[in-house]
Design brief:
The structure holds 2 protein chains of 2 kinds.
Chain A: H1 2-22, H2 24-45, H3 49-71, H4 73-82, H5 84-90, H6 95-124, H7 129-156, H8 164-191, H9 196-224
Chain B: H1 7-39, H2 53-80, H3 83-115, H4 123-144, H5 148-179, H6 195-227, H7 232-240
Helix pairs in contact in B: 1-6, 2-3, 2-5, 2-6, 3-4, 3-6, 4-5
Classes of the chains: A mainly alpha, B mainly alpha.
Chain lengths: 226, 241
């Protein structure tokens, strides 16, 4: 039984990854957007290294969140228009599992490149090695939770035409706790303080979203697509 | 319980309740306003400015209470498919957002003379602001989805997720504020409130709640009429008036 479910998970995951590799704009544009947003701050605030060092954790986190929000429309929209989501609902496999596979693929295609790029952004903002490490760790814990919450929002706005702005309005309040803990962990790392408490809370939020959101998303999807 | 499922019965029931809640609201509000503005003594620290408390505190308490009602009715709607629960939720959303906005505005007006600033990034203020964003998201989603049945169920799920989010936001913001060493002024602890000040506050709280109930019932009535606009009983009701 379990083997069956692992198989279908991997099938959906690899199908989506192949699709993302063919549509480069869907994960490439958020990446470019991320770098641009982050480099807007030095342009606006001036090149003072000390100040840039101070604001960097917040700037990078906010840029990551905006990039993820931007990429979320591609999570379900194509499959919704092509009728693939309907097939997912009709299939005998648990819908939440299929959604989890899709979200995993989306995270690998859109968030992982961002995380790989953050050390570079950290260097641009004069971050120390410990801060960069903290940044990468918090992003690794935080972005999956963001993608999961984002999937819920994307399913809620499926039937809405040009729902991008609405999607952001729905999701930002839900994402705020993750930003707060992510940024404060990086700030603490920069000051040389132990930040394991923040990591534990972020882990707890990730587990909470992981257990709760796929089910809720499945319920929304069944409602919206009828 | 079964009769509550009938829109016609609900409409008539609300019509019977409304006069009583209106009168109760009027009594509570006029007592609270008179006692709060004239009878209660001025605060020894804050002078007359503290009297905005009689508007601010009820608004702030109700902003959360209404969200809880929104959550509870959404849950009832999802589990039992009771349409009246969705009507309660739809009617409550806008009122809750208004109370939240009023709490923020009156808080800013109170903050200016007391703390010397309109706004501080204090835990309570920030959570209230995020609550307002949650309300906006709820209202935005409700108005964006065309099909009313889909919209009802989608926003119900959103309301439940928002309810899970509220305590997380509250604790994270509280913790964030202690990290940032918030201004010590905002942490002033309320002195034990005197009875002459407390009773008007309770009166205003009851008055504001009854006002919410009144507006809720009015909106529920019009929503009932609107949703059932193609039925026999609505055309009968409209012809009578």
């Amino acid at each position: 039984m379990l083997k069956n479910e692992i198989n279908i998970f991997i099938t959906i995951l690899s199908r989506d990854l192949i699709q993302y590799s063919r549509r480069r704009g869907e994960w490439g544009l958020p990446l470019v957007f991320f770098v641009m947003i982050a480099s807007l701050y030095p342009l606006g605030l001036g090149p003072n290294p000390k100040m840039l060092q101070e604001i960097a954790p917040a700037v990078i986190w906010v840029a990551v969140i905006l990039a993820i929000l931007l990429s979320l429309e591609s999570l379900f929209q194509n499959d919704y228009q092509e009728g693939f989501l309907e097939q997912m609902i009709l299939s005998p496999h648990p819908l939440s599992l299929l959604i989890l596979a899709k979200v995993t693929a989306h995270w690998m295609a859109s968030s992982l490149p961002l995380i790989l790029l953050t050390p570079l952004m950290g260097l641009i903002f004069h971050q120390t090695a410990t801060s960069i490490l903290a940044l990468v760790i918090t992003l690794l814990l935080g972005t999956p939770a963001l993608s999961l919450v984002g999937a819920l929002g994307a399913s809620l706005t499926l039937s809405v035409q040009r729902g991008g702005l609405l999607l952001m309005t729905l999701l930002l309040p839900l994402m705020m706790p993750i930003i707060i803990f992510g940024v404060s962990a990086v700030v603490k790392a920069g000051e040389g303080v132990n930040y394991s408490a923040e990591l534990k809370i972020m882990g707890a939020i990730l587990l909470l979203t992981l257990s709760f959101v796929p089910m809720a998303t499945a319920a929304v999807m069944k409602t919206v697509i009828e | 319980m079964k009769r509550l499922a009938s829109p016609k019965y609900c409409y008539q029931l609300i019509g019977k309740i409304l006069p009583w809640t209106s009168i109760a609201c009027l009594i509570c509000m006029s007592y609270g306003l008179y006692a709060g503005l004239f009878l209660a003594p001025a605060d020894y620290q804050q002078g007359e400015a503290f009297r905005i408390m009689y508007v601010h505190v009820p608004c702030a308490i109700l902003s959360l209470t209404i969200y809880s009602i929104l959550f509870a009715s959404s849950l009832v709607f999802l589990v039992w498919r009771l349409k009246i629960a969705d009507i309660i939720a739809e009617a409550s959303g806008g009122i809750g957002a208004t109370y939240t906005l009023l709490a923020l505005i009156t808080g800013a007006i109170w903050g200016k003379p007391m703390w010397g600033t309109w706004w501080v990034w204090d835990a309570r203020l920030t959570s209230e602001l995020i609550l307002l964003f949650l309300y906006f998201g709820y209202l935005g989603l409700r108005s964006a989805i065309r099909d009313p049945n889909t919209a009802a169920r989608a926003v119900a799920i959103l309301a439940i997720v928002g309810m899970v989010d509220i305590p997380i936001v509250h604790f994270s913001v509280e913790w964030w504020e202690t990290l940032h060493q918030g201004p010590s002024l905002s942490k002033f602890t309320k002195p034990n409130i005197a009875k002459e000040m407390l009773y008007p506050l309770l009166g205003m709280l009851a008055g504001f709640f009854l006002f919410y109930l009144n507006v809720l019932l009015y909106r529920m009535r019009s929503l009932l009429l609107y949703r059932e606009r193609r039925t026999e009983w609505v055309s009968l009701v409209l012809r009578e008036n």
